[in-house]
């Protein structure tokens, strides 16, 4: 059955590169969640837009389900192929296609790694400003499919802000050329924006025209040690009032312990319960004085107990590693991840409620808090005790997520700030979206993919 299906694919797309070895099926069938056993039909590695279209035409004819695949660094199971789907990996389509100095845009193939996009933009003296720790492995197509956020959202916004145009292959194999990099285009529905964040359920992103920004100003990185959680949002306000913030990130002593065990450099002799890494523009005397003033105001108020400011690029990187290294340092514990958001103004009340809730609900598990506090986005990672079976651990955690979802609903928040719904957060979509909204989302999916072939089972069940 599998063989005859693949023979028909080879006949339909003769030059298509296909992988079917057990090792490849495992590698391409999973993402960073590691919760599902990969079981794809095969891996298609198209080398052109035409090949992506031809594969989709074949899939539509044969009713074969397809999982679009980028760097598979996602944390919500959005790129998992566990049920005989064909994985469509865009990794061979990884080149920059065009730069336009007047438009200040860079057109790239979807499989280009984010870091390569950064480098390509810098070669032209400009910046693609969306950034996060998985930059070396994730792909721009995957970033677009999840509307990726990261560590500079506070200054530059999410991926959505930087997509001037998109080429997308539909479930029927048609090619859509969306917005064509226009700055102004008031001609009806913006399907480009609809595709961004649709997690591969509405179409396959094959090319993107990215907007580029001015190079960032010179910056300094400061690490702050905080005495209490209550002071966190006050510290944020004190720094944001006085400085042009490029990033404002938070983590706890438990997170620090794990990154230090992974080789990061210890910042202070003493241990404090909470830490902030913030990066801000400098370059004139005023901004340096403003940074000191913010720091001193927070010390005087008793929110901040200690601090260090980077004196070199190497030290700035060292400080960033304390925050960016957290996910990797926790990976061996197969964490249960929450990626929640509320409006920044709701953050203090939400933090208070959530801390009390999780403190009670997770007495036996180690819970690691960190995240993009300046965007109202918290990552709460629950670590699996070594001897516990993963299924039991996930079941216990899901009970708590139900309560967390209720708290989010009450605060008008979201069950996924930036990782996407995928398979992991599907049961909780209705805490963030109303019934009428979900019904419309399903209708949109039906209109674009009537056979339900693209990334089935992600976001919602068929
Ligand atoms: C980050 O902010 C990523 O470092 C990963 O979004 C978060 O591992 C996580 O939960
Ligand atoms: Zn994050």
Instruction: Tell me the number of strands.
Output: 16
Radius of gyration: 23 Å
Distinct compounds present: (2R)-2-hydroxypentanedioic acid, zinc ion
Question: What distance lies between the first and last C-alpha atoms, to the nearest angstrom?
Answer: 24 Å
Helical percent range? 25-40%
- The chain-level structural class is alpha+beta
Secondary structure tally, helices: 15
Mean pLDDT: 96
Shape: globular
Strand order of the largest sheet: 13-10-12-11-15-16-14
Strand residues, percent: 15-25%
**Major β-sheet annotation:** 7 strands, antiparallel
Q: Which stretches are low in confidence, meaning pLDDT under 50 for 5 or more residues running?
A: none
Walkthrough of the structure:
Belongs to the FAD-binding oxidoreductase/transferase type 4 family. It comes from Pseudoxanthomonas winnipegensis. Helices cover 35% and strands 20% of the residues. It is an alpha+beta fold and 462 residues long. Helix 13 (347-361) packs antiparallel against helix 14 (390-410). The two termini are 24 Å apart. Bound molecules: (2R)-2-hydroxypentanedioic acid and zinc ion. (2R)-2-hydroxypentanedioic acid binds at residues 75, 133, 326-327, 337, 379, 381.
Question: Any chance you could write out the topology, listing elements then pairs?
Answer:
Layout: H1 2-12, E1 17-19, H2 22-29, E2 42-45, H3 49-62, E3 66-69, E4 86-89, E5 96-100, E6 105-109, H4 114-123, H5 140-146, H6 153-156, E7 163-169, E8 175-178, H7 191-195, E9 204-211, E10 219-226, H8 232-242, E11 245-252, H9 253-261, E12 274-281, H10 285-300, E13 304-309, H11 313-324, H12 326-330, E14 336-341, H13 347-361, E15 366-372, E16 377-383, H14 390-410, H15 435-448
Helix pairs in contact: 1-3, 8-10, 13-14
The chain binds (2R)-2-hydroxypentanedioic acid (2HG) and zinc ion.
The site of (2R)-2-hydroxypentanedioic acid has 7 residues, from helix 12 and strand 16.
């Amino acid at each position: 059955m599998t063989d005859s299906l693949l023979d028909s694919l080879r006949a339909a797309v003769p030059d298509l590169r296909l992988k079917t070895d057990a090792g490849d099926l495992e590698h391409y069938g999973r993402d960073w969640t590691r919760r599902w056993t990969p079981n794809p039909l095969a891996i298609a590695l198209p080398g052109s837009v035409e090949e992506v279209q031809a594969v989709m035409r074949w899939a539509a004819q044969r009713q074969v389900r397809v999982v679009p695949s980028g760097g598979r660094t996602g944390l919500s199971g959005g790129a998992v192929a566990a049920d005989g789907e064909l994985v469509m990996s865009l990794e061979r389509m990884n080149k920059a296609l065009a730069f336009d100095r007047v438009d200040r845009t860079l057109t790239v193939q979807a499989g280009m790694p984010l870091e390569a996009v950064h480098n390509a933009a810098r070669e032209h003296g400009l910046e693609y400003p969306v950034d996060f720790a998985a930059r070396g492995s994730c792909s721009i197509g995957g970033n677009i499919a999840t509307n990726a956020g990261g560590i500079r959202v506070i200054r530059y916004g999410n991926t959505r802000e930087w997509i001037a145009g998109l080429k997308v292959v539909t479930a029927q194999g048609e090619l859509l050329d969306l917005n064509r990099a226009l700055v102004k285009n008031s001609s009806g529905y913006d399907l480009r924006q609809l595709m961004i964040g649709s997690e591969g359920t509405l179409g396959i992103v094959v090319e993107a025209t990215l907007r580029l920004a001015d190079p960032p100003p010179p910056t300094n990185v400061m690490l702050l040690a905080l005495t209490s959680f209550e002071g966190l949002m006050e510290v944020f306000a004190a720094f944001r009032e006085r400085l042009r913030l490029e990033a404002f990130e938070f983590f706890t002593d438990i997170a620090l312990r794990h990154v230090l065990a992974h080789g990061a450099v210890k910042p202070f002799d003493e241990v404090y319960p909470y830490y902030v890494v913030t990066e801000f523009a400098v370059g004139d005397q005023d901004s340096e004085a403003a940074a000191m003033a913010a720091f001193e105001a927070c010390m005087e108020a008793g929110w901040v107990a200690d601090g260090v400011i980077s004196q070199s690029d190497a030290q700035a990187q060292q400080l960033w590693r304390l925050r960016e290294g957290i996910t990797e340092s926790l990976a061996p514990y197969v964490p249960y991840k929450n990626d929640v958001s509320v409006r920044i103004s709701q953050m203090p009340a939400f933090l208070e409620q959530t801390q009390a809730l999780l403190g009670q609900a997770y007495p036996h598990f180690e819970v690691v808090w960190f995240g993009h506090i300046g965007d109202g986005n918290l990552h709460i990672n629950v670590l699996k005790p070594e001897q516990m079976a993963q299924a039991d651990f996930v079941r216990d955690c899901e009970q708590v997520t139900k309560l967390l979802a209720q708290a989010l609903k009450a605060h008008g928040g979201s069950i996924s700030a930036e990782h996407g719904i995928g398979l992991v957060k599907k049961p909780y979509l209705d805490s963030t979206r109303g019934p009428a909204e979900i019904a419309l989302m399903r209708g949109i999916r039906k209109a674009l993919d009537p056979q339900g072939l693209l990334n089935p089972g992600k976001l919602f069940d068929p």
